[in-house]
Specification:
The complex is a heterodimer of chains A (about 750) and B (about 160). With about 750 residues, chain A is α+β, with helices and mostly antiparallel strands. Chain A contains 19 helices and 31 strands. In chain A, strands 3-5-1-12-9-10-11 form a 7-stranded mixed β-sheet. A 6-stranded mixed β-sheet of chain A has the order 7-15-14-13-8-31, sandwiched between helices. In chain B, a hairpin with a 2-residue loop joins β1 and β2. The radius of gyration of chain B is 15 Å and the shape is globular. The chains are: A alpha+beta (about 750), B alpha+beta (about 160).
């Protein structure tokens, strides 16, 4: 078995020797550098662009929207975002003009000699301003998209509720903060082909965006993913912007053009996690059973739609958390503001929804004086139960197991009944969160995408995988090679990869939505199974035996003839299989598990083929003089379905949990007049090794029958539960519940003052 | 201006502006692209290299300041393709995910392993966390990195 083993990362050696080549490590002789000139105001008419004297403008090449030969859009959902602003700017940092120069320094100097004049318009900068619709910046009501999901009879159920708990929760922006900033190199070839290479999650998104900009057919755009230094959703849709800019300049100046953002520019130019205001109103029985719920989510989309409708959709579906409530109405909307567009970020709407729903559980537990554990046990989903979209959970429901495991491993019950040290200004607290995350695209998404992957035999007698699923650190290449090796009786090192190049690999769908292992991994497994079947057939006809008799084991094909075992090496069998045709390649395509039904109109049915479940316990110490929070210990338990590679699975969970703790404790974007005040690592704080204690990570395997070897998607799940567990721990320590993250000392102090006033 | 530096054991003379960042000299003039830029202001540590045995952020140092110094980059860790224990451990313990912080992280780890105090005992996990506190990683949550450095420290001590 190689599946289930922590084999070493496929590209590990390259990454520890400095040999791995990221986009900024490529240099071409005649390369030029691109620079973007951006808006400095939030909402305005552009009245003029002046090119100041004192700079030799003949040394650089300029491009603006008029150079776009087909459609001036960043192709995605609504196509409302221009690649370059025309007469109107809708947010600070919106790209207006591009400059290419033989050196980076010259391009930057040129940019300093551009002066843009504006006629300012009133700007909508907050969710509240957008909802008032006094200034209309999108349609009649500033709403990009809204959803309503209803089950049961909410009004009647509230009438019969013995207790009603109501609270509003706020979450702010979060920056993905991959350590490698965005970067692209574009080359315009003499035959009209545009070649893009760089840092990205989804080569086929970039492919489509470039085709739309220039009106090109599929084959005239080639997109190659380079080794990518982190994505977390931040390189899902955004690289289409950088690639469009670089391509436009490359076409115009006749040189390959490199655009690699510096940190400060990456921070302001790229998408972030949507801020949100989430209101919960919950009706319960006195003993803590949920009987009615109203949840309203409002997300700030920023100036353009990007992926906001899909982000909101996931937030709406996950709004209640993994609990039963027979009468529920969830309403959600995402609104436009004159701030930089928000977009994909690991968790995709769920970290916002989960913070609110889990903090609400904390508030309910306080109001009813029921322990957080008992409240969860009373309301959690079990196999056979229905989610808020009316989906019946029929398999791989690890709710009880993850809760039991995290409580046991953290010794929660004993540690919860702690005593405060009397003479100390430090207080200990322990908090719990319990959550789930749907794997793959929402609703009918996977059916629309129909992701493909292929495997083929190589001339050397090994196997090559062809997929557009990118390796962005999460381990795609390692787990895919394990899956294929397992199918074919090979070792992972016998499996290689075709370059991630849109002219060479099929469209597997994007590398997002926790779908790489669970969905594309399954497709890769199916392609490998077809290859095995085809090889067996061809060898059987040569060996005059039945294909079904041929075993693939230990890098050999084995079968019996006249009572004797005959064995041929895989390499030799591969050579024989290809002797007539010269190649052997099998392709597979995703199809949903049987019985999956989803209704896009009523937003009901099987929202996801399966969910992964987790529970976190976070322990903290709060300084009661300064309200500084020290995280003492973190324990997580996750139902992963099957860990194809336990070390990599733990790596996903630990890394996601730390991002979630950063979201809960420090990470905050500060704004003034639509501008970001802290676009640097000196003032936007992410967790360092000293902010984070050792962690215990428990993996629970509850196989999903339609995932590869039972695996479910867990890429995003660990991003959901860290913040609410942390803030629940703070509440346990100080006695007050913070309803807005990050839980800064100021917010903890405010929550305590509010509690004192109420008392 | 010609400036002499020793990079990964090789004597080099580079003709650059004395104020050029050591990071750019390594990447552009020495063709050693293993050292990365993550922030350009000494916060993230992706550009960490060893200068005369000390970990420094190469984005903050003008090359004239290290004239005559011995510089070690990630490319200089392995000898003739043989990985040093900390590199081996990073692979074995799954310490590298996207990998962009790893060159800098390895240099910080190596400096810890080379430190004199370590000749008698392995560092505590807290000491390891302190040693890499200037190196940001957004993928791993640091657990596997600390595990790897701890294992490398143990195997280094056993060899001594």
């Amino acid at each position: 078995m190689t599946v289930g083993q922590s084999v070493n990362r496929k590209e590990g050696r390259d990454k520890v020797t400095g040999a791995a080549k990221y986009v900024d490590d490529y240099h071409f002789q005649d390369i030029w550098y691109g620079k973007t000139v951006r808006s400095t105001v939030a909402h305005a008419q552009i009245t003029g662009i002046e090119f100041l004297a004192g700079f030799d403008w003949s040394t650089v090449v300029l491009a603006d929207y008029r150079d776009i030969t087909s459609r001036n859009i960043v192709a995605l959902i609504y196509d409302d975002q221009p690649l370059l602003a025309e007469s109107l700017v809708r947010h600070v940092y919106e790209p207006i003009l591009l400059i290419a120069a033989p050196t980076k320094e010259l391009a930057e100097l040129a940019a300093k000699h551009v002066h843009i004049t504006y006629k300012k318009l009133p700007a909508v900068l907050t969710i509240e301003d957008s909802l008032s619709a006094e200034q209309k910046i999108f349609g009649d009501d500033n709403v990009f998209k809204s959803y309503t999901v209803t089950r049961g009879n909410v009004e009647d159920a509230f009438q019969s509720a013995e207790v009603v708990v109501e609270e509003t929760y706020h979450v702010g922006h979060q920056e993905q903060l991959y350590i490698e900033t965005n970067g692209i190199i574009a080359t315009a070839k003499s035959d009209g082909t545009i070649l893009i290479q760089g840092s990205m999650q989804c080569p086929y998104y970039v492919h489509r965006a470039i085709k739309e900009l220039f009106g090109l057919p599929d084959e005239k755009v080639v997109v190659v993913q380079n080794v990518t230094g982190g994505g977390f959703g931040g390189k899902e849709e955004f690289p289409s912007v950088v690639a469009g800019h670089a391509a436009l300049l490359a076409k115009k100046c006749g040189h390959p053009v490199k655009i690699v953002y510096e940190r400060g520019e990456d921070f302001v130019a790229s998408t972030k996690r949507h801020p949100a205001v989430i209101r919960h109103r919950t009706g319960l029985t006195r003993d803590g059973r949920l009987i009615a719920a109203e949840i309203d989510l409002t997300f700030d989309g920023g100036a353009y739609c990007t992926l906001s409708p899909v982000v909101l959709s996931r937030g709406v579906i996950h709004a209640l958390g993994p609990y039963k409530c027979p009468n529920i109405r969830v309403t959600g909307k995402v609104v436009a503001t004159n701030t930089p567009p928000n977009g994909a970020f690991r968790g995709f709407g769920v970290p916002q929804a989960c913070f609110a729903s889990e903090m609400h559980m904390e508030n309910i537990s306080r109001k009813l004086d029921i322990s957080p554990v008992e409240l969860r046990r009373k309301n959690m989903l079990h196999q056979g139960d229905y989610t808020l979209t009316g989906q019946q959970l029929t398999y791989s429901v690890g709710t009880q197991q993850v809760l039991d495991a995290v409580l046991e491993r953290s010794d929660y019950l004993a540690r919860r009944s702690h005593k405060q040290p009397e003479l100390s200004n430090k207080r200990y607290g322990i908090g719990l969160s319990f959550y789930y995350h749907g794997g793959g695209f929402t609703g009918s998404g996977e059916e629309k995408i129909k992701g493909q992957a292929a495997v083929e035999l190589t001339a050397e007698g090994t196997v090559r995988i062809l997929t557009a699923s990118t390796e962005i650190g999460q381990g795609t290449r390692t787990i895919f090679s394990q899956i294929v090796a397992q199918e074919l009786g090979l070792r992972p090192e016998d499996v290689e990869f075709e370059e991630n190049d849109t002219s060479k690999v099929p469209d597997s769908g994007p590398t997002v939505a926790s779908r790489t292992c669970m969905v594309v991994g399954r497709v890769v497994q199916m392609a490998a199974a077809s290859l095995k079947e085809e090889m067996a057939k061809r060898i059987a006809s040569l060996a005059q035996c039945q294909a079904s008799e041929i075993q693939f084991e230990g890098r050999h094909l084995l079968w019996q003839k006249d009572g004797e075992i005959i064995s041929v090496s895989f390499a030799e069998a591969a050579e024989r299989c290809m002797s007539r045709t010269g190649f052997l390649k099998t392709t597979a395509q995703y199809s949903s598990p049987p019985g999956i039904k989803w209704d896009d109109v009523t937003y009901s049915g099987d929202a996801y083929p399966v969910y992964a479940y987790a529970a976190d316990v976070v322990e903290v110490e709060v300084d009661m003089d300064t309200f500084e929070v020290k995280i003492l210990k973190v324990t997580t338990a996750t139902d992963v379905g099957k860990a194809i590679n336990p070390t990599l699975a733990e790596g996903q969970i630990e890394g996601g949990t730390v991002q979630a703790l950063g979201y809960g404790l420090f990470e905050e974007v500060a704004w003034k007049d639509g501008k970001i005040l802290n676009n640097r690592l000196t003032n936007y704080i992410i967790p360092t090794s000293l902010d984070i204690p050792d962690m215990e990570t428990v993996l629970i395997e509850n196989p999903y029958p339609y995932g590869p070897y039972g695996a479910k998607g867990i890429g995003e799940l660990p991003m959901d539960g860290g913040a609410p567990a942390l803030v629940a721990a703070i509440a346990d320590a100080v006695g007050a519940v913070v309803t807005e993250i990050p839980a800064t000392p100021e917010r903890i102090m405010e929550a305590m003052e509010k509690l004192a006033v109420e008392a | 201006m010609a400036i002499k530096i020793v990079v990964n054991g090789q004597d080099l003379e580079v003709s650059v502006s004395p104020m050029k960042r050591l990071l750019d000299v390594l990447r552009q003039d020495c063709y050693l692209t293993g050292t990365k830029e993550g922030c350009g202001e000494g916060e993230c540590g992706a550009c960490s290299v060893l200068v005369d045995g000390e970990v420094i952020n190469s984005c903050l140092v003008p090359v004239c300041q290290v004239e005559g110094s011995e510089i070690v980059t990630v490319e200089g860790l392995a000898e003739n393709g043989k990985l040093v224990p900390v590199q081996e451990a990073f692979i074995k313990y799954g310490a590298a995910q996207c990998g962009i912080c790893i060159p800098g992280m390895l240099m910080a780890a190596q400096a810890l392993l080379d430190s004199k105090e370590l000749s008698k005992q392995t560092p505590t996990r807290y000491e390891i966390r302190e040693a890499i506190a200037g190196n940001l990683c957004r993928c791993t949550g640091y657990m596997k990195i600390v595990d790897a450095i701890e294992a490398a420290a143990l195997s280094t001590l056993e060899k001594k």
